Amino acid sequence: MEYLIKQYPLETGALEIQYIEEFFGEFPRKKTAQEITNRLRDREFLILMAEASLPDAAGTVVPVAFKVVHELRARESEQKLQDLVARLRHCVRFDGRKVLYSWIGGTRRDWRGQGHFRALTEESEAWAHASGFHEVVVKTKNKFYDMRGTLDQLEFDVVKYEVHPSDNRESKVYLSKQLTSDVVRAHTSTRTVVYAD
Ligand SMILES: CC(C)(COP(=O)(O)OP(=O)(O)OC[C@H]1O[C@@H](n2cnc3c(N)ncnc32)[C@H](O)[C@@H]1OP(=O)(O)O)[C@@H](O)C(=O)NCCC(=O)NCCS
């Protein structure tokens, strides 16, 4: 199968992400286009969306999965990112290295298990490697079993585990992957990337 991926610039990409997140019932706190724009404005980022045909209308193509990754610097001004960098300090090296943060992403229920998220992840890794990034980090929670299983298949390594004081399902898991040329060579998905306006 050949995956169709659309790469978006900031403003339209932020609106597309806000729109697709409406289809993710499991997340109560959805990101607004404004929040996405503010986060990504002054840094390297990639907004990717996988598109696929509707099962009962092959000619109609819809967005089915998305992924947003961005540069994470040793010194951040946004409070949430400062906090993230502080939590990663002892397990991710920032000095003289480019670190990528895999911020948000997912696949709509009806299209899960068809390789769309692998295709998006591999595309983001190929872009990141070509852009000089050394490592990609991601954060999830114990209770996100689908995401944990997927990150396992995508060969992310756990670098930190933060126990929640009262509910272990809420405990945070931090994972990372070194972006070597071997990683890019091992990619398996076939992708066509188009650039949106
Ligand atoms: C996690 C999620 C993005 C996976 O998307 P997807 O498009 O179904 O993933 P893919 O089909 O590309 O699968 C990628 C790999 O992960 C594996 N995988 C997918 N879902 C899995 C699951 N629930 N358990 C174990 N492995 C899984 C696939 O087998 C595949 O492995 P392979 O390529 O080696 O065969 C999707 O289930 C989702 O959006 N879940 C809700 C989002 C979420 O939990 N977010 C948590 C916040 S961090």
Task: Please give a handful of descriptors for the protein shown.
single chain, 197 residues, alpha+beta, Aminopeptidase, eight-stranded mixed beta sheet, 6 helices, 30% helix, globular, binds coenzyme A
Task: Describe the overall structure.
- The chain has one domain (2-195): Aminopeptidase (3-Layer(aba) Sandwich).
- Strand 2 (45-54) and strand 3 form a beta hairpin.
- It is globular.
- An eight-stranded mixed sheet has the order 6-7-5-4-3-2-1-8.
- The model has no long low-confidence stretch (mean pLDDT 96).
- It has 197 residues and is α+β, with helices and mostly antiparallel strands.
- It is built from six helices and eight strands.
- Helix 1 (10-21) crosses helix 2.
- Residues 65, 106-107, 112-118, 140, 144, 146-147, 149-150, 153 line the site of coenzyme A.
Write the layout of secondary structure elements.
Elements: E1 2-8, H1 10-21, H2 33-40, E2 45-54, E3 57-72, H3 79-88, E4 99-107, H4 116-130, E5 135-141, H5 145-153, E6 157-162, E7 172-178, H6 181-185, E8 190-195
This protein binds coenzyme A.
Residues 65, 106-107, 112-118, 140, 144, 146-147, 149-150, 153 line the site of coenzyme A (COA).
